[in-house]
TrEMBL record:
InterPro entries: Sec1-like, Sec1-like_dom2, Sec1-like_sf
Protein name in the entry: Sec1 family domain-containing protein MIP3
Chain residue ranges for the region called Disordered: 363-382
SUPFAM superfamilies, per database record: Sec1/munc18-like (SM) proteins (SSF56815)
Lineage: superkingdom: Eukaryota
PANTHER family reported in the protein's UniProt record: VESICLE PROTEIN SORTING-ASSOCIATED
Gene Ontology biological-process entries: vesicle-mediated transport
Biased composition (Polar residues): 366-375
Amino acid sequence: MGSVDLITSSHNSIREISDHIAGAILYVDAGCLEAFQLIGAFPLLLELGARAISSLENLSPLDAIVDWNNSLAEPATKIVIITSRLLSDAHRYILRCLITHRTVLHCAVFTSISEIAHSALIDSPLGPDAFHEYHSLLLQDYEEIVKRHEKEGLLTHRNSEHIQSPDSQNTKLSSEDNIWSGLDTSYANDPNIEASPSKRNFYADESVSKEDGRARLSISVNHFPMIICPISTRVFVLPSEGTVAESLLSNDNEESLSPGLPAISTGLPFDGEDVPPGAILTAHFLYHLADKMDLKMEIFSLGDTSKIIGKMLTDMSSLYDVSRRSKMSAGLLLIDRTIDLLTPCCHGDSFLDRLLSSLPRRERNSPAQVKSVQSSRDHSPVTVLRPPLDIKIPFDSILSKEGTEKRSDQIHESIIAFISGWNSGQPESDVPELANSNKLNSELGTLNGSFLSNYRGASYLEALLDRGAKDGALLIKKWLLEALQNEKLSMNSKARLGITSASELRAMVKKLARDQNSLIRNRGIIQLVLATEIALSEPHSSRWDAFVSAQKILSVSSSDTSQSLSSQIRDFINTSILVRSSQQDKMVGSSEGLLNFQDALLLSTIGYILAGENFPTAVSTGPFSWEEEHALKEAVVEAILERPSSAKLRFLHGLENDLEANSRKDDEKNENAAEKISDDFDDQWGSWDDDETDNQNEQSYGDMQLKLELRDRVDQLFKFFCKLSSLKWRNPVLKEGLTALSKLGSDTYSRKGLLYKLLSALLAKYDIPGLEYHSSAVGRFFKTGFGRFGLGQAKPSFGDQSVLFIFVVGGINSLEVREAMEAISENSRPDVELILSGTTLLTPDDMFNLMLGSSDSM
């Protein structure tokens, strides 16, 4: 058996559908686009003969004109659509795509959600034969629109007996655009369009219609499981805008911390109807991924949600696996993210984590365009908003000021000329405002996209995964020096030595990007250097260092007394009031490196988790005394009243406007008080009439009501904090296992995350309480049948497997990836192939948004 390579497996999956791709216009949705960027799939797709590759959500009739393979002699008759969403969610886009391109005769739809998963979701409109049902639904909806517009004379018949020649169709392509633009696509954009089985006849006749002689559209619906985002050949996460990552991992109940995180593990069994959709989809995804990679899974789980996923995986393996003997044996370990929230909340020594925390991300598609799986509870959020892996880098920073302005002007003029030429029949005043907008100018200097897992054979991200902050920057500098040497450019001798600085990297990368050819050749390393420059510059560098220092203070205080720890948390909250708003920071720059109120709340989260681990005797009522917690609450209330603009938080939802209004009234009151001081005392006395007194009383009453409501919200926040402090102790069996892990190893071991400790213990073949093994159907048969005669099957060990596959339900952190690699290295197991994965790639800011942010779901 060969070694596991996620990127190669993804490329091979694309090659398997090469017959569909050849000569077709390829449409991919946002989740699929994110995955294809990371694996570098676009050169492969063009090599396989794709005419064009376009966004499904932002399709245009002009997509048919683009042709990267010079086959415009014939109009496009094939479309391939690859989506990471449920078919019912992508239906409106698929339908709009078909009615936009009138020459298409064949459409192949590929979805990463399996046919069984479509029917397994309670609220899914598709049944057991989901793909065939959707095939009929799509065909009926399409033909209904076509017939409606044929009657109105807006659509040219596609006649199978009188097909126009390619040349004549090319000649008429531009002249017919005006006719086609009149086609009303509002039906396709209607959000009420659903693939509802109850409203359709699924098994309608699919033969060619003889009444109008028109060739019927050929549609196929298929499963494409390998839509993943590989960060390296052995590490991957799910697409941020795919259905699996966006689905709820916990329902709205007492044990839920966030819709995007598994519920707290209590050891109590799930009710069948209460299984969150994210758990169902994750189980089906992992099963088909393992099947695609020819892996035979021995399944282990840690945590309640992981246990449910493991059980579903085992049941599916028992039902559908028929060729397990020919597959490579692998151990699958499922872990609930909520068992260890401390590691992803902390700013650890991981270069990639620091890089991703400093870079702005691409904005997601408009939430209004996405219609996701409905929750069984009407008030529950529908979709978890995961941060995309696509990043934004200020590309113009490597160019001189004059060169940047010159190039921007040239691009700007070219766009205006193109739009003017396209609308040549219209006056110049009708040229779209896009060409003259500031938004266009801002986008010209930004390089959007994601890091490439593999760029020209260099696995940059894989090399950076196991690097700390300093080592990672030095490695980037080394690659940059090698690129300069390959380009035969002179280098400053000082650049070879010493600590890496942002200014030094900028000077070197400017030299490397001296011309367009060099820029293109070295695009991969230039992208990483620019990202590193941002991470090392202010205010990102100072903020990261301030977080690291604050975490050390909390860690030391947690080993002392609860009073010392609560005092430190209160100091962080009080200090955050002194930090100006982000806009003022940009203008003044005097408070760079200080932590704002949101940062103080993240530190409070860390403090409560540490308190729960170190002061377990008081978990039932909270880790701190009433006086200590009351002081913390008052500090939070004062911070919110002082800086209401920085309090865009979930627990304050609905109070934002009132807090802003109260802040403005306080400012006006202070201004009026300052003016009155300059007036004579007699004039002031004369102005104190009954009406003003009534207004003051009414205002005081309103302020009191606001403060009471705010205190109620803050009480809810601290109930959430107390819930975090009890994570380790809610499940007695799990508590025993985590306590046993914490006692293994030295002080350095104790500072590591759960994944490192768990992997080290399993490789050393320790028995971990709470770790459940899900035996296969054969294993259960031996246990209950032949086991009576002494022929029972021994429980396999996770550490004995040749391939170790770890999936963190809820998301994985870059620091955990680095520590897991250390665990493999320290246990002298070079023969082990480790695959690390999770729902999403988490940074500390992502964890804050999941637990306390204002927009973790919609």
